């Protein structure tokens, strides 16, 4: 009976020592739910940013690339990715054609205005009425007239009252960002800079 007890204690001590020695490696093995998953997500984000190549004919200086398939907005300097953020897009996929089709347009558009929008409201037609803060702190307006021929406009990059919508198809055609991400982006935006939106 005593030899079995002694073996059990020895095994327990060895397991405990294994989990607490080599702190950098073994603790992660023991706590996969708390430490490994966030590290994998961070690694995946880094891989996504590194995988973005120079865009064809990227404008020199600062520009923006939006990849709809990735639900991601990339800040570029001379065509190279320097930062990126998750976004929400129009409720319907495909190229915007008419007013109210809930699609985010593809193309290359200059920024024509940067407006403070913290006091703007919007009625999404869901029975909740006017929603305060629907556009977040800023609305970065895009000049889409070359594509629309004047048939539709009002597309921009803006914040949101609904952070849970980021990463989904939720807008009426605009590009939504988390408000804090929009504030970080706005520091690099100026009128005339190019915004390329692609599938």
UniProtKB/TrEMBL annotation:
The active site is at 158 (proton donor/acceptor), 174 (nucleophile). CDD domains: YkuD_like (cd16913). GO terms for biological process: cell wall organization; peptidoglycan-protein cross-linking; regulation of cell shape. Pathway: Cell wall biogenesis; peptidoglycan biosynthesis. Residues 62-198 form the L,D-TPase catalytic domain. One of its GO terms (molecular function) is transferase activity. One of its GO terms (cellular component) is extracellular region. It comes from the Bacteria. Keywords: Cell shape, Cell wall biogenesis/degradation, Peptidoglycan synthesis, Transferase. InterPro entries: LD-transpeptidase, LD_TPept_cat_dom, Transpep_catalytic_dom. This is Spore protein YkuD-like protein. It comes from Centipeda periodontii DSM 2778.
């Amino acid at each position: 009976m005593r030899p079995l007890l002694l073996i059990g204690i020895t095994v327990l001590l060895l397991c405990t020592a294994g989990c607490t020695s080599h702190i950098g490696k073994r603790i992660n093995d023991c706590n996969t739910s708390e430490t490994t998953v966030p590290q994998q997500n961070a690694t995946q984000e880094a891989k996504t940013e590194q995988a973005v190549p120079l865009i064809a004919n990227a404008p020199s200086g600062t520009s923006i690339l939006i990849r709809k398939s990735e639900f991601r907005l990339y800040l570029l300097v001379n065509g190279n990715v320097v930062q990126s953020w998750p976004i929400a897009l129009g409720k319907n996929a495909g190229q915007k054609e008419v007013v109210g089709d809930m699609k985010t347009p593809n193309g290359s558009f200059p920024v024509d205005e940067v407006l403070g929008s913290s006091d703007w409201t919007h009625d999404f037609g869901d029975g909740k009425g006017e929603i305060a803060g629907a556009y977040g702190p800023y609305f970065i307006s895009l000049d889409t007239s070359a594509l629309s021929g004047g048939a539709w406009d009002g597309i921009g990059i803006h914040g949101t009252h609904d952070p849970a919508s980021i990463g989904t198809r939720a807008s009426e055609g605009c590009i939504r960002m988390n408000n804090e991400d929009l504030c970080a982006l706005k520091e690099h935006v100026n009128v005339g800079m190019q915004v390329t939106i692609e599938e």
